[in-house]
Amino acid sequence: MRIRSVAATGVVALLAVALGGCGKAPYDERMKYLDGISQHGIDYRVQLFDQKTEPSKEACEIGYDLLKPNPPADDELGTATDTWRDQVKEAYIKSCMTGELKPKPDVDGVDAVTPVPITARPVPSVSASPAA
Fold this sequence. Notes:
This is Lipoprotein. Residues 6-20 and 114-119 have low confidence and may be disordered. This protein has helices at 2-20, 27-50, 57-67, 82-98. It is mainly alpha-helical and 132 residues long. It contains four helices and no strands. It has a domain at 23-113.
């Protein structure tokens, strides 16, 4: 009988550890992820211009599909909901199309028109290093 209670306790402890990692990511982490996805969209826009391709919605969707993002969880079950995945895709595509960071999705979705004047060819992101 003692072996059964020790085994049952072990199983319960294992489940607690396994489920402890579940849950949604903090809001700040999800917003940071959106910023990163938006930057990927802007970087892909630069690649499109390098290939002499206009950054259309279709071209940006191709770039998003190639990225194969894995957004952090946004529900208590530790999964990314379809709504959250759609917001991530929207942030990428809008940033790719406009060249602007879009960390917070618009209520009109991907088809919303955001007037952004394009006056110069975009510059790829470069990490700044302190000057000596």
